[in-house]
Amino acid sequence: MKKLAEILRKPYSLVFTDQLIFSGSNFLLTFLLARKLNITDFGLFSTVLLVTYFFVGIFNALIVQPFQISVAKGCNKKPLGFVFQISLVLIFILALLMYGVKFLPISAIYFFKTNLPVIIIFISAYLFQDFLRKILLAIDLIKLVVVMDSIFLLVFPFIGYQESLKLEKSLLIIGVVNIIASLPGIFFFLRNAEFSLQNKELLQYHFKEGKWLFSASIMQWFSSNFFTLVAGIYLGINALGALRLVQSFFGAINVILQTVENYYLPKAAQLYHQNKKQEKKTLLFNLSKGMMILGALITVFFIFSEPLITLLGGEKYKDYGFVIKLVSVLYFVILYSYPTRISIRVLEQNKAFFIGYCISFIFSVLSFHFLLKYGALYGAVAGLVINQVLMIVYWKILLNKKKISVWV
């Protein structure tokens, strides 16, 4: 029992525990909302979430990712205070931009116009809680992140006990719970960060490192979602619904991968700058082991695709089991690319990161008509797979050409 307690206190066990809580709660929340909301409302929720992920990418590029690299070189109270301050400024700017939607003469976004307050609360709270989690993970405060993610579990009784649930109420509940879950992180920053208006050097660093990452995040969002965005036009509502359902399900894997990156990226950067070769090999081994475990899980999804899609969406989706198989192949490619992806980030090859996503997006624009017209859902997922392959090949060629690597 004592040995078990020691294992559970180790950093990787805490990271796994937190990931289990975080990714599990996100997956179950999506599943719960799919059951509680009508089809139209769930589709709108997926759209709001897609917009939220777009803003998360901007946050990561301008604030989180530069901080994750800089913290490996040493962290004091001033950078913590700076990222906290700039996060609030950025949320305020994004909230103003969202409010501007109200004045656009586009009837297709009627829902967004009429429900802007709850949408702004939902997105702002999501962004802030996500920001706090990633910064706290970067500075090894894993226990505090576990506490925050455990508080978020309150969302389930609040939503589960609603007899007649509307999307507006769902967004408000999730937003308020995210604010409550953020409180431990806010208290930590207020007690341990140094707040100042003299942040010129830090601002220049984040702008220098973030400008390519910002461009890459825009390209990453479009290259990842372009086929999904146009699939509805080419394939119809049923095929689009199946693709979104499967993508939502695999979103749990995305969350795991994001947390792996949030934890391993600062560690890899620190060991690289300290030139600790054996420790780097150990880190790569642990990362590879984690990818293999995820690969085994995805293999189970691949094998049991038909009963799984029926469990997720009901009998009406039973003919779409092949979509899970297709998306499983996509995620095998993504898992294989992760050590290379971390190398590009640690070595601060941000321009290459951006160019990789540019190549991916250009391919999407040039090929979507052919792939969707003649391949339908097979073509849509094939396009996503080819996008990943093109990026990996470009990054590997670049690293080999420059003879640089984090892992050797």
UniProtKB/TrEMBL annotation:
It comes from the Bacteria. It is found in: Cell membrane. It comes from Chryseobacterium ureilyticum. This is Membrane protein involved in the export of O-antigen and teichoic acid. The chain crosses the membrane at residues 12-32, 44-67, 79-101, 107-128, 135-159, 171-191, 212-237, 243-264, 284-304, 320-340, 352-371, 377-395. It is a multi-pass membrane protein. Coiled coil: none annotated. Keywords: Cell membrane, Membrane, Transmembrane, Transmembrane helix. GO terms for cellular component: plasma membrane.
